[in-house]
Amino acid sequence: MNTTPSVRRESKPLSRSQRRRRTFFLFVSPWLVGFILLTVFPLAFGLVISLTNYDGLNLFNLHFTGTKNYVTAFGDPNVQYTFGRTLFWAALNLPAWLILSFLLAVVANQKVRGIGIFRTLFYLPSVIPAVGLVWTWKILLEKNFGLLNAILDFFRPGTAVGWLTDQAMYGVTGMAVWNGLGAGMIIFLAGLQGVPDELVEAAQIDGANQGQVMWHITLPMMTPVIFYQLVMGLIGAFQQLTIPWLATTNASVSVPPRSVYLYMINVYQQIFGVGRFGYGMALLWLLIIVIFALTVLVFRTQRYWVFSEAEEQV
Amino acid sequence: MNTTFASLPPAGRARWPKYLKQFLTYSLMIVITLVIMTPVLWLLITALKKDVEYLSFPIKFLPAVPQWNNFVQVFAPKYHFLEHAGMTFYLAAVFSTLCVLSSALGGYAFARYQDVKASHALFGLVVAMIIIPSIVTIIPSFMIFAKIHLTGTYWPWILWGLAGSPYHIFLFRQFFLSFPKELEDAAEVDGCSPFSVFWRIFLPNASAALATSFILNFIWVWGDWLTPQIYLRADNTTLAVLINKVFTNPQGNLLTTLTVSAITIYTLPIVVIFFFSQKYILRGVVTSGLAGR
Description:
The complex is a heterodimer of chains A (314) and B (293). Chain A is mostly helical. Helices cover 70% and strands 0% of the residues of chain A. Chain A has a single domain (77-312), classed as MetI-like (MetI-like fold, Orthogonal Bundle). Chain B is built from 16 helices and no strands. In chain B, α3 (18-47) packs across α16 and α13 (207-223) packs antiparallel against α16 (256-288). Chains A and B meet through α1, α4, α5, α6 and α7 of A and α3, α6, α7, α8 and α9 of B.
């Protein structure tokens, strides 16, 4: 391959490695071309737009405003608010989802007859599409006609919590966690089944009870899995849009309430609601930077708290 | 630790008879199942109510007479449910077929052409793209597609399908890595072209990966709300968008129980697909640690 430049393609047949190189690029070209045209180009286009005053109509009256959109974003109380709401969403969702799906995985890991049926049923909420999920929970959480308030009313008469209005953060968290349980469970289950039996047996011989085995062996062995779920969950929180949007809007409410006004909801509203394309693109690019920074940060600090067998042997 | 102590059975097992432990395990699992399934049961019950029954306060837990007719009403011509179900099926099938083939080809190249120098760097790019959420490209892409008048058509899905998806390329690469090297060597000796090695030897042996990828793609398009909401017109959009607002009475008020019946019909195919192909779906989830979205 290093000799490629000096070889005249017309005069000599291609060497084996050259042929393989050509085939490789031919085979990945659908993805590569698509990646350039459908990912890199839109992102770059978005970056350019974010430096302009584009509002969707003024393409012929466009002028560059430099970093004005970005400066505005940093001083925008709306952006600060939605950023805070998103962090709160993550702080509420991730622990609840991780702990519940871990417990579910422990239950689903029991070696009893018919466990497959239970696993299937536990996973079921995760296959329900977003619109189905939202409507399933709308009729559950509705303030006056929902099941949840009716049950709460039984214990504390007069209860009418606005799970999809002023308390929407908690209502939407409920449905998002329910939706994620199955997927979380399956991933933890794979992790649990990867814990070597001889480790558990050795601990039991040493007199450890089930709780100690869980705390000192299973959990440390699972830290890479938990870590990965945490990173993906954080990134997921910043792109959360469909579920909170659909859950809280209807014919009379066109924009989600403030309590669940997440970062991406604001971006969507700026672009498609108000038509501030340039500003929206700047917000989108800030999001990309945040996601990138989060990924790098968590991967860099990984070695301080994630168990790895190699280190343990030292 | 002395040996006599170690040979004793763990304390818990001696005290609990086996059948009692099993009984408790099953009771726990049944209780958890009921808690998890409550929203689904409530959905099915509500789908059988009259709208006035849903809108009564205090709530009525069960319908006086189950309104099976709701499920017939959903298909009334004025709501265009069946038409849009067909469109959604068509869009999902076309996109999934293209995406599966393109991703399989890419995944094959990344698995079997590792001797090509650029392959590792490019694969790093593929993995990085799994993390980048599609939402950050969908919005700027919309402006581009709008400029070339492809919004309101299914062309964006065809182009996205042709480009494959990083997640599915990853899936196929992992799968094709496990094939023995002799397989392609033998084919090459027999004079197979590189493409026919892929098409006639590897692909027919990849039915498990093909099924996983197709099903995950299909479920994705069937369930996606945001992309059709942004890109498509009201008359050619998918069910996800249609169901949200189409079921209204002549005064324009939303009919909740009819919507919920439609949601049941809309979700049912996905649940059925899941029941019959869960090993494929769950493999996809475990391979990436993602729910395939």
